[in-house]
Protein 1
Amino acid sequence: MNALVPLPVVMPLLGAALTLLLPRWPQVQRTISVLVLVATLAVSAVLLVRAYQHGPLVVRLGAWSPPVGIVLVADQLAALLLTVSAAVTLCVLLYSIGQGQGDLGEGTPVSIFHPTYLVLTAGVTNAFLAGDLFNLFVGFEILLVASYVLITLGGTDVRIRTGSTYVVVSVLSSMILLSGVGLVYAATGTLNLAQLATRLGTLPADLALALHLMLLLAFGVKAAVFPLAAWLPDSYPTAPAPVTAVFAGLLTKVGVYAVIRTETLLFPGGQVGTLLMVVAGLTMLVGILGAVAQSDLKRLLSFTLVSHIGYMIFGVALSTVAGLSGPIFYVVHHITVQTTLFLVTGLVEQRAGGTDLRRLGGLARIAPLLAVLFFVPAMNLAGVPPFPGFLGKLGLFQAGAQVGGALPWTLVAAGALTSLLTLYTASRVWNIAFWREPRLATADPPTRLPGLMVGSTIALVASGVVLTLVAGPLWAVTADAASDLHLRTPYVRAVFPGGTP
């Protein structure tokens, strides 16, 4: 069964190579891309079941033993995020295919879209499975190179300008990460995560703290936490709708995943817990206040994306099993719901001609299904019971209350306020865009939305509802994953069954 571990990385790369060779056969490109992502989803689901039942799965590439060789590790956290990300990338791919069939504008996917999208998928899966710091860096670089192409797809002036900002920030964070990786190797003689779990603890405290903060700085930029998130609301909204959706759903979560690994496996004990709590609180409040001030739906959702990253950082900062279980559950929920909302925004743009709230109105009467597709995930994001957004926030608040103290209680209050302001922004969008007198941002006659775009969006909305129905078992998986992360020994023993060298 360990032989399955590399497949979520290998299959998208092979699919990208095949689709790159077939630019004149778009239908074949689409078929290959869909089949690859279906297979990736199936393999990821099997890995999740096996990791939950039998512990982490490890594969040594080229039969080289760690720490010399490269290892890929599918523990419960990695396998869970692999499964959710594969499901989301498949839905977004179907959405983009539907958009290509019905839209001949600048958002139309071109022949380079499919190979680039599959390379992006491979980068995400490689980052989740990486068993050493350098391979984690490689995973980030693969997905970033692909994202550079996708965010400027179509080559309009606006996309080139905002894409340049994204490229500069991403390159800067990659340079910080690469420098941190080099310094970690210089200090410990290894980059294997399981071996670092023991060696970093032997370093002088000030050196370990410096390495810790350097890695967090790099991952903080990629996760878009305050004050390192200014690039996101300007960069994401200008990309084509499916690209914005997959970026919003996945890319920042890879950064959050790296933060979780750093704080549990490499630097446990919550040495920077106070700093992370302050950052989490500011990320929540600054993000949601930015969302309240927006009049464009895409920018509003970009600010809510930043805001809700704060919930995940809050849970990590608590450094308890309950605290870790909360962000893992919340990551799964947020990947689904944030991607859904950006796909719905793409439908609104195609149906009404724009996303400027000042020029929209009455969509509930013009397109009732579109109203439902927005309302359900919006309430989910706001944390209205019984959706997973409510359960995730409740779990985080309970974990904060168990820890106690002034700062955790302040974060609980900030989280509750952020949830209320999220509900306010979602209600405001609903009242303006869907409820008031009908108006459209374009004088062109409305076009019928392609069935594949609507169908894939419905699938993701339904996924959010299904998460509500399976919240109990899902919480059990996240709690088990959090327990393994807190212990560290399941991960280390899986990589070094004979003991850490």
Note: Strands lie at 57-60, 71-74.
Protein 2
Amino acid sequence: MSNDAKPMWARLGAATGVALLLVAYPLLFPGALNVGVTLVLFAALAYAWDVLGGWAGQLSLGHAALVGLGAYTFGLLTQSPAWARFGAEGIGLALAATAAVAAVATLLWGWIAFRLRGPYFTLSTIAVAEILRLVATNERRWTGGAEGLFLANLPPVAGLDPFDRTVEYYAALVLLGAAMAGAWWLSRSRFGYYLQAIREDEDAAMALGIAPLRYKLQAFALSGVATALGGALYAVFLSFFEPHGVFDIGLSIQIALVAIIGGTGTLFGPLIGSAVLVLSAEFFRASFREANLLIYGILIVLVVRFAPQGIVGTLGGLERRWRARHERDAAAHPAVEGLERGLRGASRPS
């Protein structure tokens, strides 16, 4: 087996082990399903954010707007008396409508906001999330206002209760699997290479014939649809939500941090970031009570300080350096042996 094949098989084995662990999680930890749903759902949301923030390099701190848009679209449709006539099929139709609304919203949002770059684009995403939060808070007739929206009932789908935590876990796992498949496709497709070119130097990419606005809009639409679907699952998980929760900038920052700490633009970074942040938050909350946010903040600062490329990016860099050093040593070894043989030959008596 070649040296290049060994890391590939090691990664494949690790990925298979992680996949089996995720599938078997409800059987292994039946008393910790809330943590499992949170971990998987936030990993899926981080993958969705990473399409725009990691692969395309457009830092968004307003993705909570898409979470809230998905939660309210799905919640208002499924709780509508007119929608009840669709029965179980109504849930699938509501998810399709949620995806369509998110796609249209992100295309309009991006068409306006992508005229801005860098921190100005980031500020515009925060502004849009705040506008939607204020609209949801003040339009009581449609959204319930600050009192929020309660998902009182949802019809069973194929005999499964949507409010069952195990069902919610596997629904979130399906979304996570689709998001990881999307990240894998981005790492190998021409579309993904175009996004990376735009991220590294937008002007140079434009000079090479790449249309940045077109590809950023497509990336934003993909990211928005996946985030809105995650918002719909988040609404079912919470059962009750309000504008200050689902449109909050704190939620946007949390989603972005999961991707950044795990490693943006990588296949496993958001999943690892979600595992680190969600599990550490649960551990610190149980162990340090009121001081848990302080410890949580210190952990984030340490990771950002010593692993600025994220956990996966930093480990990848260490692996590349180790392999380069190993190859240099292997290349230098025959030369050293030849030198030693030459010295031994010169020291023999004639």
Note: The CA atoms of residues 203 and 212 lie 9 Å apart.
